[in-house]
Write a structure and sequence with these properties.
The structure holds 2 protein chains of 2 kinds. Chain A is mainly β. Helices cover 0% and strands 53% of the residues of chain A. Chain A has a single domain, classed as Immunoglobulins (Immunoglobulin-like). Chain B is mostly beta strands. Helices cover 0% and strands 51% of the residues of chain B. Chain B is built from no helices and 12 strands. The chains are: A mainly beta, B mainly beta.
């Protein structure tokens, strides 16, 4: 069945370091992937997306990498800041149904000074 | 900025009570969604609506119903609340034509059923 999972439930980094959050997906037919950030007490907020015909996409301080061979997705955050502390979710668009997203369990990123 | 407002941030209800969770968006979005969020399970889709008076079941619709009488408002209804419906409920909206995953979420309604 379809599933989206994360390798690490919690990631601790030092301020200024780069962070890498990983995600595995199981549905090879998924064509679209998204990363969301959820700060404490708030709803998830869209960060960046990538389509399955791409391997890499860059935003402001963030990069998403997609490896379809091993069905792996990662979010890289450059020069991590305290404001990056949050739970990060990956999600995939399932092969059936309009805009139906399957979310992973989430990874908590803790940034230490 | 898009604003998705969930009227109740925290609710405590008793088993068997009827519960209404209200969600309003101010950007004229066609599509609206209800998710529940539980630790270790991520977000799971309960129901969604792509137009007024239209609704589609998500992955976990059992025990829930929805109402979309106006474009800006999408309500989640628990006809008879049970303890296993204790959760965080998230409403989201999305305009047709935008990137498929770019949902705009409200801040959530944390429901406790005793």
């Amino acid at each position: 069945g379809e599933s989206v999972g994360l390798h690490l439930p919690t990631l601790s980094v030092q301020e200024g370091d780069n962070s890498i959050i990983n995600c595995a997906y199981s549905n090879s037919a998924s064509d679209y992937f998204i990363w969301y950030k959820q700060e404490s007490g708030k709803g998830p907020q869209f960060i960046i997306d990538i389509r399955s015909n791409m391997d890499k996409r860059q935003g402001q301080r963030v990069t998403v990498l997609l490896n379809k061979t091993v069905k792996h997705l990662s979010l890289q955050i450059a020069a991590t800041q305290p404001g990056d502390s949050a739970v990060y979710f990956c999600a995939e668009r399932s092969s059936g149904g309009y805009n139906k997203l399957i979310f992973g369990a989430g990874t908590r990123l803790a940034v230490h000074p | 900025d898009v604003k998705v407002t969930q009227s109740s941030r925290y609710l405590v209800k008793r088993t068997g009570e009827k519960v209404f969770l209200e969600c309003v968006q101010d950007m004229d979005h066609e599509n609206m969604f209800w998710y529940r969020q539980d630790p270790g399970l991520g977000l799971r889709l309960i129901y969604f609506s792509y137009d007024v008076k239209m609704k589609e079941k998500g992955d976990i619709p059992e025990g829930y119903s929805v109402s979309r009488e106006k474009k800006e408002r999408f309500s989640l209804i628990l006809e008879s609340a049970s303890t296993n419906q204790t959760s965080m409920y998230l409403c989201a909206s999305h305009p047709s034509g935008r990137a498929a995953g770019e949902l705009f979420f409200g801040e959530g309604s944390r429901l406790t059923v005793l």
